[in-house]
Amino acid sequence: MRLSIDPEKCTGCDGCMLACSFAHDGVFDLRRSRIRIQRDPLNKEFNPHVCIQCAAAFCVQACPTAALSKLAETGAILVDEEKCIGCMVCKEACPYGAITLQSEEGSGPLICDLCGGDPECVKVCRLPQAISIIL
Amino acid sequence: MTSKTCGRIVRVNLATGEVAQEVISQEFRTKYLGGRGLGAKLLWDLAPVGVEPFSAKNPLIFACGALSGTGAPCSGRLTVTTKGPMTGGYLKSNVGGKLGVTLRMAGYDALVLLGKRATPCYLLIDGEGIHIKDARPVWGQGVKDTCIFLCQELGVDISIACIGPAGENLVKFASIMVDAYHALGRGGVGAIMGSKNVKALVIREGVGAVSVADPTAFGDAVAESRDALYTDGIQPDLYLYGTARDIDLLEKFQILPSYNHQRGGFEGQSVAHLSGREWSDGYVKRRVACGACIYACHRLTEVSSGPYQGTFSGGPEAEAITSLGTANGITDLEAIMKANEICNDLGMDVTSAGATIGWLMETCERGILGKEATDGINVVWGNAKAQETLLRKIAGRAGIGDLLAEGTKRASEKVGSDSWEWALQARGLEQTKVELRGAKGYALSFAVNPRGPDHLHAQVLTEFGGTPEAVAKGIEITGDEKFVRPEIYEKRAELVRWHEDMYTVSDCLGICSFATTAAYGIDEIKSAKLFQAFCGIPLDAEGITRAGKRILTLERMYNLREGHRGRLDDTLPWRVMHEELPELRKRVGAELSRVSPERLDRMLDQYYVLQGWDQQGKPTIATLTTLELDFTISVLERQHAK
Fold first, then answer.
1. In sequence order, what are the residues at sequence separation of 6 or more whose Cβ sits closer than 8 angstroms to the Cβ of residue B344?
2. Is residue B552 within 8 Å of B500, Cβ to Cβ?
3. ipTM of this predicted complex?
4. Coil, helix or strand at residue B376
5. Residues from chain B contacting residue A12 (CB–CB below 8 Å)
6. How far is it, in rounded angstroms, from Cα A109 to Cα B350?
7. What share of chain B is helix, strand, coil (3-state, %, to 5)?
8. Which residues in chain B have Cβ-Cβ distances shorter than 8 Å to A32?
9. Mind listing the pLDDT tens digit for each residue in B128-164?
10. How many CA atoms lie within 13 A of B203 on its CB side?
């Protein structure tokens, strides 16, 4: 299972970001979203960035403390907060720009965990389908 | 409200830069909900009685919906409230884009601009505070260039509400444009912003969190609302074809505003190509959503070849296609796109701008004004180039544009010769392009709309019965499917009453009216569930509807306080009341093909009774007391004493 992104279809509603932070933290906070949408001043482009569970998992390879692992069932990346030292090497390693920093200093990275297999972001993107699941 | 980042009103004194904040009390929240409700109460409290719209003392209030910044579907909308320069009365204008979400996340429910800055400025709200910055480098520039400038200065993670040259030049129907293409269009909020020397309001995106009182209940309510919207008959048309999707239907039923409402369509020529169903594939570059919207009816369009190559803007929405197109005899889609782009970039309401030019076209057709009066421009039906020139002249108040910039009411008063008869306005505001003679519920709702005649008060879409949900709602309100017909007079007061309360609640929560009174997905029960779970304030469907009615009544009282004459001013454009629409006459007969003053009066009789107002159109003291609006009663007493 993995997420598929089609930037052309993104409407820039930020609904996925709102749903993401609410699902994980119970608040609506764009800074805590595991998805980020890049835009330009005149709204011509919206580019959602989120983990697409790539096979290579560069982030896992790069992590110096083995805090990251790839879940066998869903392919999602799991962050072990105990082992994470907040060095953000994973963020540098990700070619998709899909990893972001938590807003509080010293805490680990924000990486999509596929909401345990039923991603909330996909539910709010039903019409445009800029984010969808590939099983 | 559980979060410290929620529920504050901030006032900015533009002259001194002073900022004062207050926390919204639970009582205030329960009575006025948010958004439009906050705006109405703040206007009542802060605007001095009889204040001139362009006075520094007239407040300009930005209030996001109670649910803005959350994941509630289509909840990102914001209302601007002020005393309007077109009508001289209550004015609210509602907008999407990201402004509502960013304002809420910055920690504010409402931002009130008071006073006037000595030199052009813009406001920046970021995580640290509210800063007043120099806008002289962008004063005079269009909306696109202003957005590009601000993004270069501040980065792209901002939401922008700005005016164009029209607002700077106090064009009476100037708009405020949000995130470049979303318009706070109606009634002249842009002129008020211009009068305060404020070029833009800029808010940094996502600088705070929005907490929820009961996350589990809220999550459930959001999912329920979303599911209802996904299954409503109106989707996915809104997404695929936008607001212009039904132009072909208007043509089919011959209620497409044409030639300044002289006709209901074009004889011997189809304009079905103007329907969003026809052109979306060829011109839409991107479908764009407002904050938290699941529909995305808005679109960016581009003309890629031909004489209008390079035209790029948001829309054209249905309102632009009729106002800048068919109503002025213009049926070239790309020419309409160009005119729409000009209005968006110069910051003008497409409806009033188009209608003012339509009025001029008819005035010239009748020989009342000649070329010498129109700066040599050949002002005739269908002349798209003339329209372009006139739009630019209006924004710059140059030549004939200075007259048109006042709107059709004032322009027709100056020109005389009965030209007020074809000024499609009431109370000073041009009506939006719904053919009211073919939709009597809309006609009634236009007449009683506190800001003037338009559909964004009570979308009585039910009467058209376009979807199974609309028919079901019509039967629920009127008791019989035979009343779900747009031409008839029966039960219109009942239809308007339900829709206007629902619409008001929708505006207060920040939910798009497409989600409440076009799709019938989010009703009063779901609205109350969302509000209650979010705020932790117990309020059921009946309570939230009563809040809607309270706010509507307060808006009425504000207008009465400022000189509205009740029934005398609950009126429609002269043409709608006195001239039959020829196409409609053929189809449904003379009686139903205009909204005669007598017929309008009979609808008003019923409407006032349902509202608990007297037959002069003034709320009774008993109604005001029931709605806890006792503080407004003195207005009635003062009028009584006179």
1. B143, B177, B180, B181, B183, B313, B314, B315, B350
2. yes
3. 0.94
4. coil
5. 288-289
6. 47
7. 45, 15, 40
8. 209
9. 999 999 999 999 999 999 999 999 999 999 999 999 9
10. 24
* Cβ–Cβ below 8 Å for B71 and A18: yes
Which of B210, B216, B237, B295 has the highest number of chain A CBs within 10 A, making it the mutation to test binding with A?
Answer: B210
Q: Say if CB B243 and CB B303 are below 8 A apart.
A: no
Among A8, A18, A128, the residue with its CB nearest the CB of B292 is A18
Is A51:A60 a contact under the CB 8 Å cutoff? no
Give the CA dihedral B531, B93, B274, B439, nearest 10 degrees. Answer: 80
* The amino acid at A13: C
Least Cα distance to B339 among B298, B296, B301, B377 occurs for B301
Residues 6+ apart with CB under 8 A from B570: B447, B448, B600, B604, B617
pTM for the structure as a whole: 0.97
Report the 10 Å Cβ neighbour count for B70.
28
CA of B43: how far to CAs of B25, B47, B508, B548, B558, in Å?
17, 5, 15, 17, 8
List CB contacts (< 8 A) between B228 and chain A: none
**Residues A44, B287: C-beta atoms closer than 8 Å:** no
Report whether B454 contacts B432 (CB < 8 A).
yes
- Token look-up 């506190």 returns B450
Closest listed residue to residue B33, CA positions, set B456, B558, B550: B550
Q: Which of A56, A44, A34 is nearest to A12 (CA)?
A: A44
Residue B155, helix vs strand vs coil: coil
Beta carbons of B296 and A11 less than 8 Å apart? yes
pLDDT digits (tens, 9 = 90+) for B499-544: 999 999 999 999 999 999 888 889 999 999 999 999 999 999 999 9
What pLDDT digit, counting tens, does each position of B284-338 carry? 999 999 999 999 999 999 999 999 999 999 999 999 999 999 999 999 999 999 9
